[in-house]
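Known limitations

Structure tokens in this collection are predictions and should be treated as such. Users comparing against experimental data should check residue numbering before alignment. To illustrate the layout, the record for UDP-glucose 4-epimerase is reproduced below. The input appears on top and the generated tokens appear beneath it.
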Amino acid sequence: MAKNVLVTGGAGYIGSHTVLQLLLGGFRVVVVDNLDNSSRTALDRVRELAGEHGPNLSFHEFDLRDKPALEKLFASTKFDAVIHFAGLKAVGESVQKPLLYYNNNLIGTITLLEVMDAHGCKKLVFSSSATVYGWPKEVPCTEDFPVCAMNPYGRTKLFIEEICRDVYRADPEWKIMLLRYFNPVGAHPSGCIGEDPRGIPNNLMPFVQQVAVGRRPALTVYGTDYSTKDGTGVRDYIHVVDLADGHIAALQKLDEPGIGCEVYNLGTGKGTSVLEMVAAFEKASGKKIPLVMAGRRPGDAEIVYASTENAERELNWKTKYGIEEMCRDQWNWASKNPYGYGSPDSTD
Ligand code: NAD
Ligand code: UFG
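Generated tokens:
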């Protein structure tokens, strides 16, 4: 019997890619999303890409904090597990509007856990983040490194990790995977789905992509005086399809005996600088990306990349793609959809 998986935030960037991999892997998928930072079109395209598996996807548009709506859904469908992506994720905005972030991310998660508990669904995969490593003292980051919060967004990730640990301590029937993503980039190789941030992008590759299609004049490079190979910040960029596959591996792991509340890094284990990433994108796209060198962005770490040992050994998962493929697929998506899922008038 095909397994039923609830995916919260499944219309978003990582969610839509994961929903596609789930469908192709034979799962039945129910998405809940309030479309606050995403588009219904993403799921229409996922359905198409999934071919004969497309009918195994259903979508419910509501906010996770709407407990009666969630109750109703759980009363009508028995879920084997939940993958929980839904959340707000813009670091700068979280500093300006901390209560919005605490309300959305924490209340959303607590409501979900309460309804899951009430319906005896106790298997959860949660989107945590490498942001919990802050400015790590050394690299690669292993899962047992000390954790901290650099901003309200990061603090919601830390709090939710702790909430999950407490929920498991109180009831060991729970099985929980806390996945700490490094820097997801790229898009599905079809170029039909990808990242489509609202407003001015905060993250490197969405910004680079908008420069390449002529929506922004130049990329501002934040910091050229770091102790790195070329002075710019170093990160662990991971292809979003590899990341999506990591969720399937985590779901499978939930069925193994002896699983409690576990934490895994999902990254490649390789560090790439801003300038290296820009050069790789220029090569993949044939576009010149004009640069404006600037000072460091407050709160940014110097070098962050993952130790991938635990995920490779215990989840039996490792990444397949390098930065060439990430940039190739990012450009394929960008050139086919220069305005994402919208039109030139629907975005700034
Ligand atoms: P995204 O914004 O594209 O997707 C999140 C989705 O959740 C959106 O579709 C949004 O509409 C939905 N959503 C938000 N609040 C909701 C609510 N209260 N009820 C229902 N739906 C809601 O972001 P993403 O990049 O796909 O990230 C997914 C998850 O991974 C997030 O939790 C994010 O914090 C985490 N994460 C992302 C990154 C990254 O760089 N993209 C890195 C680490 C962790
Ligand atoms: N950068 C620029 N110019 C830009 C944007 C970014 O130079 O316009 C640089 C940053 O200074 C950094 C690198 O590009 O050195 C990567 O920056 P991102 O904003 O793309 O990614 P971060 O590692 O800073 O943070 C992201 C998410 C966090 C998440 C973290 C780890 O924004 O929420 O990845 O997953 F926690």
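For this record: Residues 89, 91, 129-131, 181-183, 202-204, 207, 219-223, 233, 235, 274, 297, 300 surround UFG (ligand 2) (CB under 6 Å). The chain has a mean pLDDT of 97. Please report discrepancies through the issue tracker.
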